[in-house]
Amino acid sequence: MFRREPQGTASGWCLCYIPPVATDPRVVLYRLSGSKKALEACRLVEKLYLAGAKVVVWFQDQGRAAIFDQYLWTFSDTSFVPHRLVLDRGEVEEPVAIVVGELLNPNQASHLVVVEPPKNFKAVRGFAQVHDLLLAGEERKDKWEAAGFPVEEAKAR
Fold first, then answer.
1. Position 11 in a domain
2. Pick from 146, 139, 144: which is nearest to 127 by CA?
Protein backbone atom coordinates (compact mmCIF):
# COMPACT_ATOMS: atom_id res chain seq x y z
CA MET A 1 0.00 0.00 0.00
CA PHE A 2 1.23 3.49 -0.79
CA ARG A 3 0.32 6.73 0.94
CA ARG A 4 1.19 10.37 0.31
CA GLU A 5 3.01 11.91 3.24
CA PRO A 6 4.31 15.46 3.77
CA GLN A 7 8.08 15.55 3.46
CA GLY A 8 10.88 18.05 3.00
CA THR A 9 10.93 17.57 -0.79
CA ALA A 10 10.53 20.21 -3.52
CA SER A 11 6.85 19.35 -3.92
CA GLY A 12 6.41 18.96 -0.19
CA TRP A 13 5.04 15.41 -0.58
CA CYS A 14 6.44 11.97 -1.22
CA LEU A 15 4.85 8.64 -2.00
CA CYS A 16 5.73 6.29 0.87
CA TYR A 17 5.40 2.50 0.92
CA ILE A 18 3.50 1.25 3.96
CA PRO A 19 4.08 -2.49 4.47
CA PRO A 20 0.99 -4.56 5.23
CA VAL A 21 0.49 -5.50 8.89
CA ALA A 22 -0.24 -9.13 9.63
CA THR A 23 -3.29 -9.22 11.87
CA ASP A 24 -3.99 -12.94 11.92
CA PRO A 25 -0.82 -14.85 12.70
CA ARG A 26 -0.03 -18.39 11.78
CA VAL A 27 0.38 -20.48 14.92
CA VAL A 28 3.10 -23.14 15.00
CA LEU A 29 2.90 -25.76 17.75
CA TYR A 30 6.10 -27.41 18.96
CA ARG A 31 5.48 -30.65 20.84
CA LEU A 32 8.52 -31.15 23.03
CA SER A 33 9.53 -34.67 23.96
CA GLY A 34 11.47 -33.70 27.09
CA SER A 35 10.83 -31.40 30.00
CA LYS A 36 13.31 -28.66 29.09
CA LYS A 37 10.94 -26.02 27.71
CA ALA A 38 13.25 -23.12 28.59
CA LEU A 39 16.17 -24.66 26.70
CA GLU A 40 14.01 -25.33 23.64
CA ALA A 41 12.63 -21.79 23.83
CA CYS A 42 16.19 -20.40 23.92
CA ARG A 43 17.17 -22.48 20.90
CA LEU A 44 14.07 -21.33 18.99
CA VAL A 45 14.65 -17.66 19.87
CA GLU A 46 18.29 -17.97 18.78
CA LYS A 47 17.25 -19.56 15.48
CA LEU A 48 14.72 -16.77 14.80
CA TYR A 49 17.24 -14.08 15.78
CA LEU A 50 19.95 -15.55 13.51
CA ALA A 51 17.40 -15.58 10.66
CA GLY A 52 17.00 -11.82 11.15
CA ALA A 53 13.62 -11.85 12.87
CA LYS A 54 12.56 -9.67 15.76
CA VAL A 55 11.01 -11.71 18.56
CA VAL A 56 8.83 -11.20 21.62
CA VAL A 57 8.93 -13.94 24.27
CA TRP A 58 5.86 -13.68 26.49
CA PHE A 59 5.42 -14.75 30.12
CA GLN A 60 2.59 -14.33 32.60
CA ASP A 61 4.93 -14.64 35.58
CA GLN A 62 7.67 -12.07 36.25
CA GLY A 63 9.82 -14.57 38.16
CA ARG A 64 9.85 -17.03 35.27
CA ALA A 65 10.60 -14.21 32.84
CA ALA A 66 13.59 -13.09 34.94
CA ILE A 67 14.94 -16.64 35.06
CA PHE A 68 14.50 -16.97 31.29
CA ASP A 69 16.26 -13.61 30.81
CA GLN A 70 19.35 -14.94 32.62
CA TYR A 71 19.14 -18.31 30.90
CA LEU A 72 19.03 -16.72 27.43
CA TRP A 73 22.43 -15.16 28.17
CA THR A 74 23.98 -18.46 29.34
CA PHE A 75 22.21 -21.42 27.70
CA SER A 76 25.07 -21.94 25.24
CA ASP A 77 28.76 -21.06 25.32
CA THR A 78 28.69 -20.22 21.61
CA SER A 79 25.47 -18.15 21.48
CA PHE A 80 24.77 -14.47 21.77
CA VAL A 81 21.16 -13.32 21.60
CA PRO A 82 20.79 -9.61 22.39
CA HIS A 83 17.61 -9.13 24.39
CA ARG A 84 15.92 -7.13 27.11
CA LEU A 85 13.44 -7.94 29.86
CA VAL A 86 10.58 -5.46 29.44
CA LEU A 87 8.57 -4.74 32.59
CA ASP A 88 6.76 -1.60 31.45
CA ARG A 89 5.50 0.13 28.34
CA GLY A 90 7.88 1.72 25.89
CA GLU A 91 9.91 0.71 22.88
CA VAL A 92 13.20 -1.19 22.93
CA GLU A 93 15.89 -1.53 20.28
CA GLU A 94 16.91 -5.11 21.07
CA PRO A 95 15.77 -7.69 18.51
CA VAL A 96 14.43 -9.92 21.31
CA ALA A 97 12.11 -8.61 24.01
CA ILE A 98 10.96 -10.67 26.98
CA VAL A 99 7.54 -9.33 27.97
CA VAL A 100 5.67 -9.95 31.22
CA GLY A 101 1.94 -9.64 31.87
CA GLU A 102 0.13 -7.61 29.22
CA LEU A 103 1.15 -8.75 25.75
CA LEU A 104 2.99 -5.84 24.18
CA ASN A 105 5.21 -5.58 21.12
CA PRO A 106 7.92 -3.12 22.23
CA ASN A 107 10.38 -3.96 19.45
CA GLN A 108 7.87 -4.28 16.58
CA ALA A 109 8.53 -8.01 16.37
CA SER A 110 6.98 -10.27 13.78
CA HIS A 111 7.41 -13.44 15.88
CA LEU A 112 5.90 -14.25 19.26
CA VAL A 113 7.18 -17.16 21.36
CA VAL A 114 4.62 -18.38 23.89
CA VAL A 115 6.16 -20.25 26.81
CA GLU A 116 3.07 -20.07 29.05
CA PRO A 117 -0.50 -20.27 27.77
CA PRO A 118 -2.09 -16.86 27.20
CA LYS A 119 -5.31 -15.94 28.98
CA ASN A 120 -6.63 -14.27 25.83
CA PHE A 121 -5.58 -16.13 22.69
CA LYS A 122 -6.87 -13.33 20.44
CA ALA A 123 -4.38 -10.88 21.98
CA VAL A 124 -1.66 -12.22 19.66
CA ARG A 125 -3.05 -10.37 16.63
CA GLY A 126 -0.41 -8.14 15.10
CA PHE A 127 2.33 -10.79 15.01
CA ALA A 128 3.01 -12.66 11.77
CA GLN A 129 3.77 -15.92 13.52
CA VAL A 130 3.18 -17.39 16.98
CA HIS A 131 5.40 -20.21 18.25
CA ASP A 132 3.74 -22.18 21.07
CA LEU A 133 5.93 -24.67 22.95
CA LEU A 134 4.03 -27.60 24.46
CA LEU A 135 5.30 -30.18 26.91
CA ALA A 136 3.91 -33.73 26.86
CA GLY A 137 0.28 -33.62 27.96
CA GLU A 138 -0.25 -29.95 27.09
CA GLU A 139 -2.84 -29.26 24.41
CA ARG A 140 -3.83 -25.88 22.95
CA LYS A 141 -4.49 -26.52 19.28
CA ASP A 142 -8.27 -26.35 19.76
CA LYS A 143 -7.98 -23.04 21.66
CA TRP A 144 -5.92 -21.44 18.89
CA GLU A 145 -8.36 -22.67 16.25
CA ALA A 146 -11.34 -21.46 18.30
CA ALA A 147 -9.67 -18.02 18.39
CA GLY A 148 -9.66 -18.11 14.57
CA PHE A 149 -5.99 -18.76 13.81
CA PRO A 150 -4.55 -21.28 11.35
CA VAL A 151 -2.48 -23.86 13.23
CA GLU A 152 0.30 -26.13 12.07
CA GLU A 153 2.50 -28.56 13.94
CA ALA A 154 6.26 -28.24 13.69
CA LYS A 155 8.29 -31.32 13.00
CA ALA A 156 9.49 -33.13 16.12
CA ARG A 157 12.64 -31.63 17.62
1. no
2. 144
